[in-house]
Amino acid sequence: MRDTDDRKARALTVGNERYAERVDGGGGGPAGSTLPELVAGHARRAPGALAVMDGDTVLTYGELVAAAGALAGRLRRHGVRPGDRVGLLVPRSATTVVATLGLWWAGAVCVPLDAAHPRPRTEAMAADAGISLTVGEAKLLESAGLSGPTLALPVGESAADGRSGPAAASGEAVPDPLAAPDGEAGAFIMFTSGSTGRPKGVAVPHRAVAGLLASPRFVTVTERDRVLFHSPATFDASTFEVWSALANGAAVVVCTVQRPSFEDLARQVERYGVTVAFLTTALFHQLAARRSRVFSVLRSVVVGGEALAGRPAREVLRAFPWLELVNGYGPTETTVFATAHRVLDADCDGPVPIGRPVGGATAHVLDAEGRPVPDGEHGELWIGGGRLAHGYAGRPELTAELFTERPGLGRLYRTGDVVSAGPGGVLSFHGRTDDQVKIRGHRVEPGEIEHALRTLERVDDAAVTVDRTADGEARLVAHVVPSAGPVPRPGVLRERLAALLPEPLVPAELRVVDRLPLTASGKVDRRLLAAAPAARSADGAPPPAPLDPVQRAVAEVWERALGREVSRADADFLALGGHSLLALVVADDLREELGVELALADLLAAPTVAAHAALVQHALLTAHDELRADDPEARHDR
What we know:
It comes from Streptomyces solincola. By secondary structure, the chain is α/β, with parallel strands linked by helices.
């Protein structure tokens, strides 16, 4: 076994000089090809090859293309025309893949939507994107209550068996790939946070996606691989998870648990033989700290969303020396990844580089006047080439501001990221020129949160700052100036804010302050604000009662995850700065220390020490009863 591992390590551990040869020179796909054409080509060459695994059900390439073709025909008969923007509201499943491909063959632009997002935000996104129809699962469409036209899809039926599903039943011909959208046609509209309080819909063309993922040179994906699909469809990383596989004849493995724990991810990877996965940087750091067994199965891991720390990267590389670890960088406006770097042990002495341009992108480090800066000096990163988005849906003024023509350089996107170029043009990331921050891989504009806070009753003004945990993870803190009258409780404000914003944009902590300090120029002094304690406490909570033994055990797990003392049974995990990723940490630690398996949804539904302790006690009693049921003597006693 050790000899096999050594051979893996020798085969994969190449210098970045050789890696640069693979990265440089643009994308590797056929000229002019789009994802629908590539998938259809694989279906013609190997119709029986595995395309999608969704639990115990599978779709071959032939079945996938047939099911998507049938849906395309249905959409056309329903009035969908080339260029229409169509919302997609389905749980992560094989149907997500079938529906996206069907929308593209009907000529539509796919606008992924998330049932977990607040309805006002979804409605605003639909308006900006110009959605003419939303297709999806009937129950989700009903609960979303969208005002526009909807069309229910037979979720599960089309994914379960392509031979007996709607494709075969309809008799619809498989679409001619020559009729697929051309490269400049829209593929997706993906929404990101907006500094003015309005999310931005990034319109991504087909040529940008295919340019990155067809025969990629920055990561190994072959017909023998299986790529894990575990991100929300509204997160642009899902583009890599699904279409890096299908553009190259590989298989997509759908994570069947909608909110997977660390253990769920490990089981999925092991059970289905996953070889390639994308992990947000924050998730990678957590799995690295646990030496997760996912790394013992995977061959290639792409990490992105935030700055990659050298220590956990080195620990993973040394523990799993065969692993191909790639640090990917790129705003949604440049289609998932604009640069990438194969991480080696030597890269982990300091900040891990973000690498060189990939897939036909170009990178330019410019000063404030738009002039190139010398290697080694800091400047702002501008991205160009064939990977750029068309711009922002319904926002021509913003498109003109951030996508500009530069003499001799062509059309460029201004990222706002500060970088420097080292030897060989390898880029290193040094921060932002503005207040934008990444929270667990999601772009967050503090201005959007401040705008939402100011709309709340009894809030006069607000500002959001960012602090860092001991592990370097970004954490949002909202500072609220109340209106005259009763002081609002931070917990209540947080609940109201959660009804307006998706989870990554809800601050970990809300502080009530008397005023916002200003700089000499009249702007909010965020540095002083972040250092100041809350001016008032609105909770008026009585002294805590002693915790019982199970509650104390839960509180100790919380304390490690949150990095703060927890002494009350009614302490709220979310109000103390907890979020979905830290809830995964809590679930994993409770499993390791107390031997109980708790679902992430259950932990987040009742996020107090007392409620978590009750879940632990119930799980322990259930396990005890099951053991007694299997014990002949126990049955005899009854």
